[in-house]
Amino acid sequence: MSLIAFVGRRLMGAAVLLVVLSAAIFAATAVLPGDAVSAVAGMDASDAQRAEVRAELGLDRPVAERYADWVAGAVRGDLGRGFVGERPVTDVLATRLPNSLLLAGLTLAVTAPLAALLGLWTGLRGGGADRFVSTAAQVLAAVPEFVIAALLVAVLAVWLELLPRVSVIPLGGTPLDVPHALILPVLTLSAVGLAVATRLLRVSAADVAATPYIEAARLNGVRGVRLAVRHILPNAAGPAVQALTLTTGALVGSAVVVENVFDYPGIGRELQLAVAARDIPMVQGIATALAGVMLLVLLTGDICARLLDARKGHQR
Amino acid sequence: MSRQIDRRAFLRRGAAGAAAMAVGPGLLAACSTDEPASDRKTGPGSSPRSGGTLRAAFVGGGASETLDFFNGPSALDLVRARAWHGTLGNLDPSGPDGVRYGVLKGIDIADDLSAYTLHVRPGVRFTDGSELTAADVLHSLSALAANSKLPVYRLAAANFDLAHARADGDLKVVLPTLRPIADGRMILCQGNFLVVKDGTKNFRKGMPSCGPFRLTEFTAGQGAAFERYDDHYGHVPRLDGLELRSIADSTARAGALTGGEIDFAHDLSPVTARTLGDKGNVELVPTESPYLVGLSFQMNMKAKPFDDPRVREAFKLAVDRQAMVDTVFYGNAEVGNDLPSIGFPDYAEGLPQRAHDPERARALLKEAGAEGMKVALTTGPETPGMVEMATLFVEDLKKVGVRTSVRELPAGQLYADFPAYAALPLAGSYQMPIPALSTYQMSTAGGSPSAFGWKESATDTLVAKARAESDQAEARKLGTQAQRTRWEEGNQVLPVFKPNLNAQAKGVRGIRDDLFEQFPGFSQASLA
Fold it and tell me: Among A133, A186, B26, B113, which is most buried by a count of CB atoms within 10 Å?
């Protein structure tokens, strides 16, 4: 199958999956205990006031009818307005999603080359260096994000005073207006991703290094960096690419801890707030958009893996 | 013929792209300029500085933040509105009517308490040059506040017939009451009634306003920027500008303050506030009475054995209030006496402070046949200190023989399913600082769901009488009598009043002078 046909098929599959996921998300919001009435009317509202607010929000209508309305709006690009504050969901996505994509992208940009370097080095050399890096990666993967964030803040912001503790973005601006404010969030997220990817690449590199194909290359005099980069990395990178795309896609919506600690204006915190307030249109819109992003990232990972696969990607 | 991507070409391009992405942020960071260094001198001897931009940070509400403060539920929505719009008035115990008026000159009350006449202060101007009139006040009250779903505005709607309010000339608004009340000034002048121009439907940057500052920038979930309004009534702000930021995490707010990125941090957690104690460049400025939040536990009288007054009293006697103040709030709080609204004129000051008496509590439980009773205390981190208080309360209850444990819900979940919350046998809660009797009428009287089974028509009547009494001494007597019944037989354990633990850079002054401290104003603030 050609690459274009492969991508086309996967895109169609992703579109169908997105519809199914949006229905599942809507069903999940419907079975959550409670609704947005307390967030809108306050906890001491009377029963009559609650009923009035519930009717105003349309929560007294059947779930299927509300979902059908939402789908009809979504097809036209209207994801509705939040119950709390009445802000259009598309506005929230337009301002927050790019910030989260930027954070995830930068994290990938830091993680991927470093993981490749460390994975190849430890996978090929073995010995003390391998044990040290593997143990360090294990420890790093086990430490919670907020601990890593606190340590980085303590060292880089408090002690050395090199970076701001909080990502205070200029009003009306984007995180790119204050690039130094991105460093601590990116470093925190990179730490865990680096540990996982390094271990994956290390195992793959060691496996590939033991294959007859590499043995033949060695016997032909190929050594060192050339052997690692031209012969081992392309064959070892497949599984690591899949894992990296998976973690990067997940980062877009789930970097809540880092967003809170550094006050980074990402989409994860908006989703968290919306869930807490039972703000169904906001939860539905953000969660569906994140599902869409995840599907696209996974598709990209699959394409990369296919191109890296010597049997399928190397077409002449 | 379509061109296939060659595997080797893909690897080459991918490697180059990855390198560029990896180096990019570093280069960007290297090219960036640092935040301008703060050159402010601080110290107790320095005089308030005229000018500068004060930067303050609040919890905020993310994307749900709105300029329409009549429908904005977060504290920052109201703080932002206070900087932007003129207020009817604020509570001020030193003022002649117990209030300090804003865009009003005064409020007259009809002899039969059937109507309030609001006198508009002449000469108040909006930013578009027009003069503020009774029509603007009327629109803000009867069209906007009356349709608000927020509890603060429901309090007014529960007392005044906002739909039948009318303007009497350019400078008078007549506001009928729904029932005779003498304490209406305290309801109208709590700082949250702000005035916008007649006909306002949409709230946006550039709309006419008459507050101390004019809005220049707003991004929901991020912050707002203001510049001074030089024609502000009363006094012109000292600051040139104001920046209100949304920073959700308490530690992050404290970090931004100590790092010099902001000048004022609102509502820190007790632990975070304690860590700031030894920082030389900042100071803690907790809100003072009456701007204290009551932290309480509700006993459901519909659930056994809380239908027995002896059990309720035992729970009140079991709690070690001072230990909560010392342990949870490191001394930055006040001991409560099982009644809300400490510091307000209608709070029953005369009642004796409930003692910590575990022996008596144990005896009462035995007498009621509830010795060894089992109950779960459900709470959540809705405001700093709630869960920690519950943990201590449970330990106190265990000491008097109650088998109990804390059931902690995630943030935002406690009140999300309100019918389920109101059916809990024992639940954590908190009370915002609003006058005692009017809040009782709104949220407790008549068997309201948030009353947890308390339904005492005699007390309801007493409260209504107290509020309808023009003679202040008599009103106080009746109000105290009603609160004594709540104190003796009520189903609320309220051991602690906690302030908003605010902190500011040394040398910042005047924030407290704006009153309504839980939603700070900055019209009199200055930098060092």
Answer: A186
